[in-house]
Amino acid sequence: AGMYALRNGWGVNDIYFALHCSPPGLSSHDQPDNGTFELYAHGRWLMNDTGYYTYGHDSELRNWHRQTRVHQTLTLDNRDSEIQGKHLLWQSAPGFDVVAVENAAYPGLIHRRTVWFVDRAFFVVLDEAIGDAPGTLDLHFQFAPGEVRMDIPGNRVFTRFDDANVLVASASDISLEEEEGWTACEYGSRETRKAVRFSHAQPAPAAFLTLIVPYKGNTPPEVAATFSPTFQPGAALAEVQAKAFDKSWTLRRDLATGDASVRAVQD
């Protein structure tokens, strides 16, 4: 079905990350949003879906909520993507989960997304735009309604709730801009929320490396991530390094062997 759930527990204060990347649906209820996700952590929704808003009374706004670019995924020139999802890898072990999917999103362009649930505490997301289709590559993120701060020089965005928050930080050569954001949790009712896009400096083939870090309190943690020197977008083997919560890890994914790993390293 193309639905993936990553969680560190089943309580109301645990972390829950739901990823969608499906083959074509059996009905018109599906949206062109392959690669999108929702995040709940530490007692609150932090990054929720845009919602459908309506089935009929306002066709213009219904179409707005269905767009690829208003979901947490990649676009080419802000166009709607195709729905051609494919499962590539799932691996769970003590202390981590890894999932990899891809979507034949546009003619000449495949979007591959790999998510590492590191220490079952935060997420490292590798997005690969594989192919030679020309155009601008954007990665979109939307947040739960509330105060959100953009740190444009630092290529990061974080919420400002009193109790629990999320930091989204890019480790790629990108520019950060605000977008129009709405969410509709109930039929016929919608509210504004912060939405942003990371625009890649290069056309495909290219890759985005992003940290998505839920945390308690209102001080965002120091984080960092880098590609390995041999990384190439579209290769079966991917290796990256990540830092968060004063720890460091090496993350691997090999689609040729169906293997993945998260290894703690000493600084």
Summarize the structure.
The chain has 267 residues and is mainly β. The protein has one helix and 22 strands.
Strand content: over 45%
**Total number of strands:** 22
Mean pLDDT value: 96
The general outline is: globular
* Spatial strand order of the main sheet: 6-7-8-9-18-13-12-11
Give unreliable regions as ranges: none
From the N-terminal CA to the C-terminal CA, the straight-line distance is 40 Å
Radius of gyration: 17 Å
Q: Biggest β-sheet, characterized?
A: 8 strands, antiparallel
Broad structural category: mainly beta
Write the element-wise H/E pattern from the N-terminal end onward: EEEEHEEEEEEEEEEEEEEEEEE
DSSP helix count? 1
**Can you give the helix content as a percent range?**
under 10%
Keywords:
single chain, 267 residues, mainly beta, eight-stranded antiparallel β-sheet, four-stranded antiparallel β-sheet, 1 helix, 22 strands
Description:
- The structure is a single chain.
- The protein is about 5% helix and about 55% strand.
- The chain has 1 helix and 22 strands.
- The chain has an 8-stranded antiparallel beta sheet with strand order 6-7-8-9-18-13-12-11, with no helix packed on it. Strands 1-2-3-4 form a 4-stranded antiparallel beta sheet, with no helix packed on it. It has a 4-stranded antiparallel beta sheet with strand order 5-10-17-14, with no helix packed on it.
- The longest helix has 8 residues, at about 60-65.
- It is globular.
- The N and C termini lie far apart (about 40 Å).
- The mean pLDDT is about 95.
Set down the secondary structure blueprint:
Layout: E1 3-7, E2 16-20, E3 37-41, E4 44-47, H1 59-66, E5 74-76, E6 85-93, E7 96-106, E8 109-118, E9 122-131, E10 137-142, E11 148-151, E12 156-159, E13 164-170, E14 174-179, E15 182-186, E16 189-192, E17 195-200, E18 206-216, E19 224-227, E20 237-244, E21 247-254, E22 259-265
Antiparallel strand pairs: 1-2, 2-3, 3-4, 5-10, 6-7, 7-8, 8-9, 9-18, 10-17, 11-12, 12-13, 13-18, 14-17, 15-16, 19-20, 20-21, 21-22
